[in-house]
Amino acid sequence: MLALKGTSPSRRQPLAGFDPDYVDIIDYIVRCTHKIWEERNVGLLYSHYASNVVVHTPDSEIVGRDKIITETIKMQAAFPDLRIYAEDVIWSGDDKTGFHTSHRATWVARNTGYSRYGAPTGRRVVYREIAHCIVKENRITEEWTSRDELAMVWQMGLDAFDLARRVAAREVEDGFRPPILLGTGEVERLLGQTTPEQVPPPPQEGFDVEYFVRRAIHEIWNWRMFGKIRDYYLPNFQSYNSSNRILYGWGDLEVFVTQMLAAFPDGRMLPDQVLVNSDEPGVYRVAVRWYFQGTHQGPGLYGEPTGKPVQIMGTTHYEIQNEKFVREWYVFDEFSLLKQIYGPA
Fold first, then answer.
1. Is 266 helix (H, G, I), strand (E, B) or coil?
2. Is 2 domain-assigned?
3. Which three-class secondary structure state does DSSP give residue 127?
4. What is residue 8's predicted lDDT score, i.e. its pLDDT?
């Protein structure tokens, strides 16, 4: 967990164009979040987000700073006592080319105001979010947000399946969601009638962290080599997963993967971007932004098969030690998934 720190008289890394009170990029991400959300200075979005910012969510793209301001105020009105506890910021880049940051945080609040889901419930919610941002000269120019929305919905005491139907229908009526299914082409996990793509050889000798992560995802998810879990993960591995699940060990992880692929038999996992930080030799913190595509053709957690195509955007933070996964924080929006499954055909 990252502690919130006060200002420092000197910078720890070059930050050309950034406000003078930020000492490094981690400090910028953690403290600007606190200033906007908890100190409730929403107007700082004018100096911290580009006017033409694009925010990618599992449902849509939000374009423009004014829309971000509106959505922030709505969230603060619904959860006035919101606290955001920063857990980690994994980053790359510099102040010349721009920074990529992956900010993992736990959100804690009580629903005492009207939200996009209806009247106040008075319920306390705890859920995790990971935001991947591109930042240059004090402004976020693009963002990908993965939020554990289903955990919030359940903790508010709402029927997630019924709510997903109603919200998806309303989004179609409002023009927010297209009235017809898009993206109904074949999920290209296989090369025609042959096999998934072969795993390429490692790019260099020794342990390449990004190659290790991409290979593990491809072999386990796309090749269905579930036994490989024992090669990549420690036996006492822990996963802090969406809907506030906590998985422990090889067996729990295998059940999670196979249940997802039973519900979406043609499912394909596509890692998009990988960030790697290392604080000491052999110990790595890794952020992976990914997409999962599939067709809801099997039974499982999400109800009886509907034949609907789905696409999920998510982010995973990994901790790697001695060339094994030790822990992961796995965040994707299962409520968005339910809306895709149960929305109007």
1. coil
2. no
3. strand
4. 56
* Stretches in the chain below the pLDDT threshold 50: 179
3 state SS of 316: strand
Q: What is the pLDDT of residue 173?
A: 81
Closest CA to 88 of 316, 322, 325, 333: 316
Q: Please, are residues 156 and 117 in contact by the beta-carbon 8 Å criterion? A: yes
Q: Report yes or no: 91 and 102 within 8 Å, Cβ to Cβ.
A: yes
**Would 68 be classed as within a structural domain?**
yes
- Could you tell me the residue range of the domain that residue 129 belongs to? 25-158
- How much is the pLDDT for 176? 66
Q: 180-184: which pairs have CB atoms within 8 A and are 24 or more residues apart?
A: 181/308, 181/309, 181/345, 183/293, 183/309, 183/311, 184/309
Answer with the one of 158, 176, 198 that is the final residue of a domain.
158
Q: Supply the pLDDT for residue 3.
A: 62
174 in a structural domain: no
What is the pTM (predicted TM-score) of this model?
0.94
Residue 98 placed within a domain: yes
pLDDT at 1: 67
With tokens 């020794």, the residue in question is: 206
Number of domains in the chain: 2
What is the pLDDT, as a whole number, of residue 265?
95
- pLDDT on residue 201: 83
Q: Do 220 and 303 fall within a single domain?
A: yes
The reported pLDDT for the residue numbered 204 is 78
Under DSSP, the state recorded for 80 is: T
Rounded to whole angstroms, what are the CA distances from 152 to 120, 162, 321?
Answer: 13, 15, 32
